[in-house]
Amino acid sequence: MKEFNIIISGVGGQGIILSSEILALTAMESGFDVKKSEVHGMAQRGGSVVSHVRIAKKVYSPLIEKGKGDILLSFEKAETLRWVHYLKKNSPIIIVNDLELVPPIVSLGLEEYPKNVEETLRKITEKLYFIPAVDLAEKIGNARSFNILLLGVLSTFLPFEEKIWEKVIRENSPTEYSEINVRAFKKGKNLIKS
Amino acid sequence: MKLLISGNEAVARGAWEAGVKVACAYPGTPSTEILENLSKYPEVNTEWSTNEKVAFEVAYGAAIAGARSVVSMKHVGLNVAADPLFSSAYAGTKGGFVIISCDDPGMHSSQNEQDTRRYAKFAKIPIIEPSDAQEAYDFIKLAFEISEKFETPVLFRMSTRVSHTKGIVEVSERKEVPVKDYVKNPSQFILLPANARERHKVLEEKLLKLKEYSSESILNRIEKGKNSIGIVSSGVAYNYAKEVFKDAWFLKIGMPFPFPEKLFKKFYKKVKKIIVIEENEPFLEEEIKILGYKVEGKKYLPICDELNPDIVRKSIKKRELPHPDPLKTVRRPPQLCPGCPHTGVFYCLSKLKVTVTGDIGCYTLGALPPFNAMDTCICMGASIGNALGFEKARGKDFSKRMVAVIGDSTFLHSGVTGLINIAYNKGTVKTIILDNRTTAMTGHQDHPGTGKTAKGEKTKEINLKELAKACGIEKVYEVNPYDIKETLKTLKSAIESEEAAVIISRAPCALLKESREYFSKKEKKRVLEEKCLGEKCKACIRVGCPAISIRNGKAFISPLLCVGCDLCTQVCPVTAIV
Lengths: 194, 578
Hints:
- The structure holds two protein chains of two kinds.
- Chain A contains eight helices and six strands, in the order βαβββαβααβαααα.
- Chain A is of the alpha/beta class.
- In chain A, 39% of the residues lie in helices and 20% in strands.
- The mean pLDDT of chain B is 97.
- By secondary structure, chain B is an alpha/beta fold.
- In chain B, the strands form five sheets. A six-stranded parallel beta sheet of chain B has the order 3-2-4-5-7-6. Chain B has a five-stranded parallel beta sheet with strand order 13-14-15-17-16, with helices on both faces.
């Protein structure tokens, strides 16, 4: 049984914790051992947040070691750059939400928002997927479902059955969004299939 | 049944299954979720206590009275509860009594790194340390058994990475444990010197028995390896070590104190070289060295910061796995939320350029740009005491250029004694109580000022204004922090007065349900670009609201983040925000 080390990164308030929860529950219901751990500071909103999800027959460390990450799923462009060194050296998978969230520190003129993110990442791997997830999710009916749409993209690289994904998504979504979330998941999944 | 739950949820579940009747806590990251989850069980009498010392005393009282009870806190909270901790070791217990302390290696949200294992040895009580959620669940049940078997309080050390990591836990059902008969026993529970001298002897005898138990307990175990390296490890560090040293022998420690001497000696014979892999303090390393054995540990590993598998590999094996080079990106320092009521106060304080002694809570972020409006932040409740110290050192005129700031929950935790002290010792310190109607930093727990209990029931609500007056402070002001003009005026006149004053800045946390409902009816703000002075002005940026940024040379308010609180419209000099 293979091991999957997945990093989900983004900004506080983007739904990173719920997404990694759905991923971890899907792995558990698919018969794997799983550990997931979030690393974030004091900020309730707007801070950098990362979640490590480790899936294997038996998982020891809750944190992914640098050089062991298989997939980086990032909900925000600049946050992708922060974690690439956790990925394995040879052609890791990077999935990026094509969205820029500019922190106030940039407006204050104290920092610059990184330029040419796509080219920078292209140098690291060919398996790079830039997804305009917020726009796509909005078309389905809820821009906030972008995180579930990105889980759909992620799912194409993992060995879990679609019906388990869908069951877990339904069980972990607010009732009014559960069908939209399942549709968002399918949309994401089909983006890679086609 | 299998659940995917965090270490803290696992502890709560295990304690509930172990028949716990009483649970007390003061919220503090990373410990908060333990009581939050215990309060969901109707069989457990739970409370948010005013501080950790009180929480300890209530839970311990329940244990003396014969019930299984638990108290939980973060590592620095144990400092607050240290007084009853040491005494409880002497007096012992009747009902199972477990003290959970959650350490924060790496200081994700704490003012220092403390290793609770040191407290166990100092206070002379056994300590149990799980390495993941399944062990947290299994070990907490065992902790109650040990507590009752040896009539001792048991410390239970969690850490951020164990508390907040979710893993798969196989759970069971609750077993009712009857409350033991209460029999008055003054020689045990009244620590008058004559009794305490006897109890000290009892304690030392207990420790010898616990030392024997430590070697026999399933909490400590030897894991066979394929090479001749022996790793001694405990807590989450064990999991990092297992990841890096796949073929080594392991002495897995789940009960670091009393140290399992006999088991270690057995282990020592199996291997050629011993390395101790532990987070923060060299506790196990020292225990082994005291026994006279040669071991290595902190020779390789850092004492500072949280461990992880990279550090373990790099420190000991002197190499890393191949990985892409790290890339530079923008920093995202923590900040107050959009619509946060503290924003208005800190905006005014930065305008007034006063010295500010601060405290522990969301408002500690007032120390960061753009406000930079804080000079000290030491521990819970310290702001008010520190401020009086400033006055005593630099005179009453200096007091006219300074304030202490403290949150409502922190004030009731340990600020109120500082305030009484100011009145009693004739200080003229001005204290701002940032009353956002909740314990916001740790995720909105209730406290005596909110009028609701841990179970969500209505209760007496402390009136901060009357309380301040009862402490001996005659000048008490109340301000609405969303009204900048009024707040600035009140602060100015209060600060310049010759006597001590309290200014209560009252508005609920922007993330509370009532605030969200209130703001949902408000229009979101927008910038009239033709009026905005943009880069030249930046007055709105200095409000420090995460919703406001500069885009294409003009101010821009993110409609996704703005809650419509009106602070920015009040500071714009050209009415460009509507």
